[in-house]
Amino acid sequence: MQSIEPWKHDHTFGQDVRKSGERRTLIVIAITAVTMVVEITAGIAFGSMALLADGLHMASHASALAIAAFAYAYTRRHARDTRFNFGTGKVNSLAAFASAVILALIALVMAWESLQRFITPVPIAFNQAIFVAVIGLIVNGICLVILGGHGQSHAERREHDPGRPKAYTHREKHGADSHDHCDSRHQDHNLWAAYLHVLADVLTSLLAILALLGGKHLGQSWLDPFMGIVGAALVIRWSWGLLRISAHVLLDMQAPEELREEVRKAIESRGDDRIFDMHLWAVGPGIYAAEIAVVSSRPLEAHDYYGLLPGRLGIVHVTVEIRRCGPDDDLGVRS
């Protein structure tokens, strides 16, 4: 009997390779941790509540970023664990969802504290507070540049996707013969979550500086709590967007309509085939699994349908079901 070894495949889909987002996140954590230690130490040494408070805020920020770092490491180390049906790609979105929840909770605390200060104003040491806010803005600005966005680079995706192997009935397509387009389908939700945490801190520092300058030079102390509420509202909006897109992956919801339409056009390109059932869902950052049911009067072999799918779509695992119909059956109406 012929060996089936040539037909076997794993489900790592490139998740076992260290990604650039992991390295950048670790660098940001290191910078944040050093700044945290310096601010807390200086706050205790000089009796500065503003420095101490910002140092503790940096601690919560570092903890949130640690979730992203843990997710990267876990995804990579368990990529070949067969208990995961389609690899560990969804750990990325799970970490992003958790980070989004933390981000929303921080925003709610910001809003509550700001409302409290509207009701019960507290004295503000403007010079010291501005100094701390500027330090925070500089540090977080550097971290934002290091993270440098939230998408995988084209080169990185090509490195992880070495080509299109032979087709199987339940087939892994290691990737892509073209990655020349980059859109929301290729987002690294974990890196995006880390980016949002840093962006939220940049926004908080910037609004704080504006409010404190207005309070110091114009006597408008109410600007401080007002800017806190504005910042909280924006952070909640960002966290909601991240919750939505990460939950979309975690709940195995259908892939974007444009991607499904591209699959449909590719499979039905001969004119003799119609898709009567299709499930297309994300199994990791920019990678998808598909189950496609085709009816045809002159059906192709299964591997021929696999070959019709463009590699640039990021569909890494495909199962095709084929049904034969009569030559006179009307296939013009899609279900």
Jot down its keywords.
10% strand; Alpha-Beta Plaits; 2 domains; Alpha-lytic protease prodomain-like; 335 residues; four-stranded mixed β-sheet
Describe this structure in words.
The protein is α+β, with helices and mostly antiparallel strands. The protein folds into two domains: 5-151 and 187-250, Alpha-lytic protease prodomain-like; 257-324, Cation efflux protein, cytoplasmic domain (Alpha-Beta Plaits, 2-Layer Sandwich). Helix content is 57%, strand content 10%. The chain contains nine helices and four strands. A four-stranded mixed β-sheet has the order 1-4-3-2. A hairpin with a 2-residue loop joins strand 2 (273-284) and strand 3. Helix 3 (89-119) runs parallel beside helix 6 (189-218). The longest helix has 31 residues, at 89-119. It is elongated and about 85 Å long. The chain starts with 19 loop residues before the first helix and ends in an 11-residue tail after the last strand. The model is unreliable at 150-186 (pLDDT under 50).
SSE layout:
Elements: H1 20-46, H2 49-77, H3 89-119, H4 126-147, H5 154-160, E1 170-172, H6 189-218, H7 223-250, H8 257-267, E2 273-284, E3 287-296, H9 302-308, E4 315-324
Parallel strand pairs: 3-4
Antiparallel strand pairs: 1-4, 2-3
- Per the CATH scheme, the topology name of the largest domain is Alpha-lytic protease prodomain-like
Q: How many individual β-strands?
A: 4
**Domain module tally:** 2
| Proportion in helices | 55-70%
CATH class of the largest domain: Mainly Alpha
Assign an overall shape: elongated
Instruction: Round the Cα radius of gyration to an integer and report it.
Output: 25 Å
CATH homologous superfamily identity of the largest domain? Cation efflux protein transmembrane domain
How do the strands line up in the largest sheet? 1-4-3-2
Structural class: alpha+beta
Could you tell me how far the N terminus lies from the C terminus, measured between alpha carbons in angstroms?
Answer: 42 Å
Mean pLDDT over the full residue set = 77
The number of helical segments is 9
